[in-house]
């Protein structure tokens, strides 16, 4: 069965961006001229996923509004003959079949994924975290979907990180050598101390999950931070037989990734994406060269 559904958890408070996120969801902060969340939805659609469920929370109504039509705005732009902006406004509305459900009390990423159970049913599905922006020139989700269709089970995205940064991520225990870019994963450790990390392969915010994950999440006890950790459920799946929906593989990503949940990386994402835009890049690069020369 073709994989068509994606789940995007977006219920976080965005405290690292306060006071900007006091009344604006962090997912709606702009990266150049589009909210960060739209890049994530576009990535899912580009990989063939056209049924998107967003897990939201209190104060996140503008996420649904952004992907809805705005007839009065469209009419005003059409009357002005502003075809370019009209097309940009309609693009977010026509991207995919969008659905929204509230998480209620935030209880971790595992709980957010569990909120998608009724919508997903017994289908394999993708999970995309809204803080991670993958450069569209470096496909990640499509190879993950292809791998899942070939081997079954679940697939997670991995990225090599410096050993001293392993405590910021969940890290994979792999069966294969580091030269294998699609290793079988035998276990996972959530945010280990560098001395205890099983590898420097960090789990980043893209997953393709077998629906058996819901059953596992329902019996997963709260872990680190008192939250239901998706990493714990994946570690359980890694030890289950393939015929029961178990098994976990990884795809090592070596492309461009932007962490828009981090203030410095968010600013870097703004610059990198703007520099590559034909309408902004030439003038921005010229200004940057002049500015850097004055430092």
Automatic annotation (TrEMBL):
Question: What sequence ranges are listed for the domain Nucleotidyl transferase?
Answer: 5-273
Enzyme type, top EC level: transferase
Q: Which InterPro entries match?
A: GalU_uridylyltTrfase_bac/arc, NTP_transferase_dom, Nucleotide-diphossugar_trans
User: CDD domains from the xrefs?
Assistant: UGPase_prokaryotic
In alphabetical order, the GO MF annotations are: UTP:glucose-1-phosphate uridylyltransferase activity
UniProt entry keywords in alphabetical sequence: Nucleotidyltransferase, Transferase
Q: Which Pfam families match?
A: NTP_transferase
EC annotation? Answer: 2.7.7.9
- Catalytic activity, as annotated: alpha-D-glucose 1-phosphate + UTP + H(+) = UDP-alpha-D-glucose + diphosphate
Fetch the Gene3D superfamilies from UniProt: Spore Coat Polysaccharide Biosynthesis Protein SpsA, Chain A
Q: Which family does it belong to?
A: Belongs to the UDPGP type 2 family.
Cross-referenced NCBIfam families: galU
Q: What is the protein name given in its UniProt record?
A: UTP--glucose-1-phosphate uridylyltransferase
Q: Which organism is it from?
A: Actinotalea lenta
């Amino acid at each position: 069965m073709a994989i068509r559904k994606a789940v995007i958890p977006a219920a976080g408070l965005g405290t690292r961006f306060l006071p900007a996120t006091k009344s604006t969801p962090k997912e709606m902060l702009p990266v150049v001229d589009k909210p960060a969340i739209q890049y994530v939805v576009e990535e899912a659609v580009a990989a063939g996923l056209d049924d998107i469920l967003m897990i939201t929370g209190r104060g996140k109504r503008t996420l649904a509004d952004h992907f809805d039509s705005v007839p009065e705005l469209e009419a005003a732009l059409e009357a002005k003959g502003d075809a370019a902006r009209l097309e940009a406004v309609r693009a977010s509305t026509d991207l995919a079949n969008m659905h929204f459900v509230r998480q209620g009390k935030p209880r971790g990423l595992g709980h957010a994924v569990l909120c998608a159970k009724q919508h997903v049913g017994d289908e394999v599905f993708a999970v995309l975290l809204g803080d991670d922006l993958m450069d569209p020139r470096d496909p990640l989700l499509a190879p993950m979907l292809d791998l899942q269709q070939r081997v079954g089970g679940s697939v997670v995205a991995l990225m090599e990180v410096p050993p001293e940064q392993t405590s910021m991520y969940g890290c994979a225990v792999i069966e294969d050598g580091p030269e294998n870019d699609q290793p079988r994963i035998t276990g996972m450790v959530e945010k280990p101390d560098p001395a205890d990390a099983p590898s420097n392969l960090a789990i980043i915010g893209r997953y393709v999950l077998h629906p058996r994950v819901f059953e596992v999440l329902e019996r997963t006890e709260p872990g680190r931070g008192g939250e239901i950790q998706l990493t714990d459920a994946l570690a359980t799946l890694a030890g289950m037989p393939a015929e029961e929906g178990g098994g976990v593989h990884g795809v090592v990503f070596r492309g461009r990734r932007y962490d828009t949940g981090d203030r410095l990386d968010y600013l870097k994402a703004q610059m990198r994406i703007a520099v590559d835009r034909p309408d902004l890049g030439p003038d921005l690069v010229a200004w940057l060269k002049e500015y850097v020369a004055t430092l």
